[in-house]
Amino acid sequence: MTEDDGMRRLSPRLLSLAIAAPPLSIVVWLFFLPFLSSAHLSVLRDGQWSLRNYALVWRLYKFDVLYTLWISLVSLALVIGIAILLCGYLRIVGHRTVEFLFKIPLFVPFVVVGHGMRVLLAPRGTLNSALAQFGLIDLSDPPSIAFTWLGIVVSLVWKNLALAVLLVLGAYRAVDEAFLEAARNVGASTYRQIKDILLPMSAPSLVVASAFMFTSMLASFSIPLMIGGGESPQMLMVDVYYRINYQDDLGTANALGMVSYLFAMGVAGYYLRTITVKPL
Amino acid sequence: MAGAVLVGFIIFAPLSSLVIWSFTRKWFWPHPFPQEMGFFYWQRVLEGDLFRALQSGFLIAVIVTVLTLVLTIPLAYLLARYPVPLKAVILLVFLLPHAFPQLPVFVNATTLLYRANLAAKLSGVVLIHMVGALVYAVWTMTAVFKSIPESLEEAAWNLGASRLQTFFTVALPLATPGLVASTLLVFLYSLDEFTGTLLVGSPFILTLPVYMYRTSVGYELQVASIAALILMLPGILLLVVLERYMKAEYLSMFGRL
């Protein structure tokens, strides 16, 4: 009984604080504070207040911003498009092997995806090598998918499709079978069932999944680092890394970081608005 | 059937390339298959830097997992059972490192760790891993504790057990699936972590992902491929284990607070 008395003596508020403080403080110290200091560092140059960093970002990186957005949008569109149709098929018709196969990329780390895709899609990679055996590729001038934006898109789609399938299929499975049966009774094809029932009824989940994946694609680092190729353009995170690593330019790197935060906040704001609007 | 084969090809194409490369001794373009195969590179790497990187990564992952669970389980129980003020805010704070681009933040965090004399050290890497790992444990364990009917704990209290006793003998054992899931998620996250380790750990602390990056840009493709395959093994284990628990239906509420 002493333990119980001891816990009653200790104010519950204090106990809660003591329990919550350690994990929260780690995130505050090593994420929240550095996040805020980006704002401060981005307007500092040679120890003085300056907007030169942002001017540099505009001059050097505006194309990379578009490049990053382009890759993320194309990847997201492909992922969601494929997931909507594929999961519809999996939900209505079902195929356990395919469903299991699509879980595999979830557990392959990003760096492994980057390296694997590089080996597969490089000009002298295994894919071209295999295609050359069938005479589909000219060996003296092999196409290069790796080291281009297409290679990054393929890698991001490969990796994110697994998550998308999981989330979309989950949303589809939450739709009552009765609706689909009713549709089938009046002759709806699988495609119509997906388009007119599954899709509208799981739209909120799709929005959440899209927001989450888009933000993560914008912020991808290890994949573009490994498969992006050495020259411009680069995705934003690679630019930040190179700016720090090779130019030691904390100011501009943070300014570029601030730009990326703005995009992420925009997406997060959209997500919050979607989930706080009550459905009728 | 054809669909499954196509999907199988798409899923396994990059992975199989890694397998082929890891067993290669010599492979020059444009041969479709390596000229010389064998365990040559496997022997080389298991004795050298790769093994050290693997050990570091493994040790760090274990420390991160233990610390994360110890710090988050009490908090998760608190959030599940009691009306904690700002509960949603607290849960969202842990999600922040995954909602915003990590690299620029971690660049600044590295500076903070240098000032605390923790950078380029094991402790610094453990801390930077925990920043991203905590969310997996907190969110999972909170949901798991919530799903345990309070009546079971009340029964124990009625029989005279203290709250602490009840927690350890009733709540925690019932939360075992969640514990297993959290452990594996955190462990895998730490093992695979790249960005933070690259920034904080360099140049002394290497984990397998960073080692893999270094060898792959250096054109030591065999070594990099072996590292990549080893890195995949814990993931496959997690896949097999979670296959029993991770029904797609449970995730239909993902992200909706």
Low-confidence stretches of chain A: none
The topology string of helices and strands of chain A comes to HHEEHHHHHHHHHHH
| Rg over C-alpha atoms of chain A, rounded to the nearest angstrom | 24 Å
Beta-strand fraction estimate of chain A: under 5%
Please give the CATH architecture of the largest domain in chain B: Orthogonal Bundle
Helix content of chain B: over 70%
The greatest interface here is: A-B, 96 and 87 residues
Q: In the residues of chain A, how many domains can be counted?
A: 1
How are the strands of the biggest sheet of chain B laid out side by side? 1-2
Q: What is the overall number of helices of chain A? A: 13
**What is the number of beta strands of chain B?**
2
Q: Give the N-to-C terminal Cα separation of chain B.
A: 39 Å
Unreliable stretches of chain B: 248-257
CATH topology of the largest domain in chain B: MetI-like fold
User: What proportion of the residues of chain A is helical, as a percent range?
Assistant: over 70%
Structure annotation, total helices of chain B: 12
CATH superfamily of the largest domain in chain B: MetI-like
Oligomer: heterodimer
Structural class of chain A: mainly alpha
Can you walk me through this structure?
- The complex is a heterodimer of chains A (280) and B (257).
- Chain A has 280 residues and is mainly alpha-helical.
- Chain A has helices spanning 2-9, 12-42, 52-92, 96-101, 110-121, 126-133, 149-173, 177-185, 190-201, 203-218, 222-227, 236-247, 250-276; strands at residues 44-45, 48-49.
- Chain A has one domain (50-276): MetI-like fold.
- In chain A, strands 1-2 form a two-stranded antiparallel ribbon.
- The radius of gyration of chain A is 24 Å and the shape is globular.
- Chain B has two domains: 1-38, no CATH class; 49-253, MetI-like fold (Orthogonal Bundle).
- Chain B is built from twelve helices and two strands.
- The radius of gyration of chain B is 22 Å and the shape is globular.
- The two termini of chain B are 39 Å apart.
- At the A-B interface, helix 1, helix 2, helix 4, helix 5 and helix 6 of A face helix 1, helix 3, helix 4, helix 5 and helix 6 of B.
